[in-house]
Specification:
The protein is mainly alpha-helical. Helix 7 (235-245) links the parallel strand 8 (224-228) and strand 9 (253-257). It has four domains: 11-75 and 259-344, Rossmann fold (3-Layer(aba) Sandwich); 91-257, Glutamyl-tRNA Synthetase, Domain 3 (Glutamyl-tRNA Synthetase, domain 3), CATH 3.90.800.10; 362-407, Helicase, Ruva Protein, domain 3, CATH 1.10.8; 420-512, Arc Repressor Mutant, subunit A (Orthogonal Bundle), CATH 1.10.10.350. Strands 3-4-7 form a three-stranded antiparallel beta sheet. It is built from 20 helices and 14 strands. It binds one RNA strand through strand 6, strand 11, strand 14, helix 12 and helix 18.
RNA sequence: GCCGCGUUGGUCAAGAGGUUAAGACGCCUCCCUUUCACGGAGGAAUCACGGGUUCGAGUCCCGUACGUGGUACCA
């Protein structure tokens, strides 16, 4: 694929604000950016939008890096790997924004506003009516507020000289249709009169998102700007800023991604726990409230599956295939095939994706993850070869990595509780005798092989005139504790003679009582 | 309220004027298996509503309803 030399190199960015956990929608935005960039041999930039100092959260930035690493996504440029367009934290670019704000003022596209928070509150209260429950600071009321448009230049100069706190707001044009092309939504249009005079530069000298995103996208030579649809409403502000500052011809191509919804409306970061499934990529503990939220990783998801399922939520290749590696996604992804409408997240389907990936992955790939999970539960794994055999035996029964525990602990310890109720109703003295005799026959067995164990079992059953099927379930309960797991003789073979015999004996006591 | 965006089974979705309206998840039945899964075969279930345009509309247009986002010196 040759890129014409006239064509600009594709550069995209993900620009999260480090204020908390990274949720599903955020990860998907990262993913679509990344897939698009890699498909076009472009750059994927990670920029930290930390312009709101009041919302600084310790550890949140590191958490973002960790999540991307887990997903297997490495930015080409980031605060950790600066390229030639740094710095990559907006707080460190603070001084760059002011000149653009001033430039806007000089051109008459923006103005100083001296209204205090109390003034704004009063305005909202005073202008609030039944038909207009949330009045905006816009063309209809700005002349009634304290700003460089409503006051004389002398007054303004005085206030400025006295270092009166102020913000800089964009002056939305009177009567203009602002239209732009969106890669997903196609033509989108807004009436300027209905958009408010957004703050561009805050009282503390920091830019708001609106100014920062435009300035940084320009300075960082971003060619395609993908973000969540929640930004669509403020797009006209950004389009205008591009027009005023850098020229529409340099504006990146926009794509507003559909939202990911929870079971009952929008997916909220806060009630992660309420849904019964994670919303964050990884575990997150809010350092302020100490509130803990479990992540997909720790819940037992594989990064391959997580990336796969997220990619399919809002995009579809048009093929029937649903299982893709990230490399396949890079090849197949197309922004044109991203849906317009939001998608409800389905946890059941998410688990299916994970199960498919567990089946798909090699035992060797699974080993470190499963081993880690076991050791976290204080089960030491000393023999990797043995453990791999077990993983192979139970992997298709596991939807989550954590499922391996229940599916395989009995290979390492006798069940603490056995499902006595499953055998008791059909239990007979003959069956009890069978297991006593079986025990002594197994005791004498020299080679502990699946086939020999099975042979002894079946021969004895025939001798006793009991159907082997009626004995296999009790045997399973004795060894495993419940009605699940692989072939019972396979299990006996793997746990060894001593364990098999002791489990039969202790189970017999419980069942016979 | 106003503005924006959206609407194919319960969920994810294919579909770009003419199809018996794919497929997947979940659910149900059966087969395989004297466990549970995996696998296999079936089944129930959909174009929000109303008007147009057209020989013909899930596909185009207009309304309505519903959902969702925005309406902060938050991103």
């Amino acid at each position: 694929m040759m890129m014409s030399s006239m064509e600009k190199k594709v550069r995209v960015r993900f620009a999260p604000s480090p204020t908390g956990g990274l949720h599903l929608g955020g990860v998907r935005t990262v993913l679509y950016n990344y897939l698009f960039a890699k498909q076009h041999q472009g750059d994927f930039v990670l920029r930290i939008e930390d312009t709101d100092q009041t919302r600084f959260v310790e550890g949140a930035e590191q958490y973002i890096y960790d999540c991307l690493t887990w997903c297997g996504i490495t930015p080409d440029e980031s605060p950790l790997q600066p390229g030639q367009f740094g710095p990559y934290r907006q707080s460190e670019r603070k001084e760059m924004y002011r000149q653009y704000a001033n430039q806007l003022i000089e051109a008459g596209y923006a103005y100083y506003a001296f209204d205090t928070p109390e003034d704004l509150e009063k305005m909202r209260a005073d202008f609030k009516t039944e038909s207009n429950p949330s009045p905006q600071y816009d063309g209809s009321i700005r002349m009634q507020m304290k700003n460089s448009l409503s006051m004389s230049s002398n007054e303004v100069q005085d206030l400025l000289n006295q270092h009166t706190p102020y913000v800089i707001r964009i002056k939305m044009p009177e009567n203009e249709t602002i239209a732009f092309h969106d890669l997903i939504h196609h033509e989108v249009r807004f009436e300027s009169a209905l958009v408010d005079d957004k703050v561009l530069l805050k009282g503390d000298g920091m830019p708001t998102y609106h100014l920062a995103v435009v300035v940084d996208d320009f300075l960082m030579k971003i060619t395609h700007a993908f973000r969540g649809e929640e930004w669509l409403s403020s797009a006209p502000v950004h389009v205008l800023l591009w027009k005023y500052l850098f020229g529409l011809e340099h504006m990146p191509q926009w794509a507003h991604l559909p939202l990911i919804m929870g079971p009952r409306g929008k997916l909220s970061k806060r009630d992660g726990a309420k849904y019964g499934f994670p919303v964050f990529a990884m575990n997150w503990t809010d350092p302020r409230s100490n509130e803990f939220t479990e992540g997909f990783k720790e819940k037992g998801f594989l990064p391959e599956a997580f990336v796969n399922l997220l990619a399919m939520l809002g995009w579809n290749s048009g093929e029937e295939k649903e299982l893709y590696t990230i490399d396949e996604l890079i090849e197949k992804f197309s922004i044109e095939r991203v849906h317009k409408s939001g998608a409800k997240f389905d946890y059941e389907k998410a688990k299916w994706f994970n199960q498919e990936w567990i089946k798909k992955l090699d035992v060797d790939d699974l080993l470190p993850l499963v081993k880690d999970m076991f050791e976290n539960k204080d089960v030491r794994i000393s023999d990797d070869v043995y453990f791999k055999t077990i993983i192979h035996l139970v992997k298709e029964r596991c939807a989550l990595i954590s499922d391996f525990y229940d599916q395989a602990v009995y290979f390492f310890m006798a069940p603490t509780e056995i499902d006595v109720a499953a055998v008791k109703p059909k239990w007979t003295i003959e069956k009890a005798n069978f297991f006593e005799e079986l025990s002594s026959k197994l005791e004498d067995l020299n080679e502990w092989e699946v086939s020999t164990i099975e042979e002894i079992f079946k021969n004895l059953a025939a001798e006793k005139n009991i159907k082997p099927g009626e004995l296999q379930l009790p045997m399973r309960i004795m060894l495993v504790g419940g009605k699940f797991g692989p072939a019972v003789f396979e299990i006996a073979h793997l746990i060894g003679k001593a364990d098999t015999l002791s489990r039969i004996q202790s189970a017999l006591i419980q069942i016979n009582e």
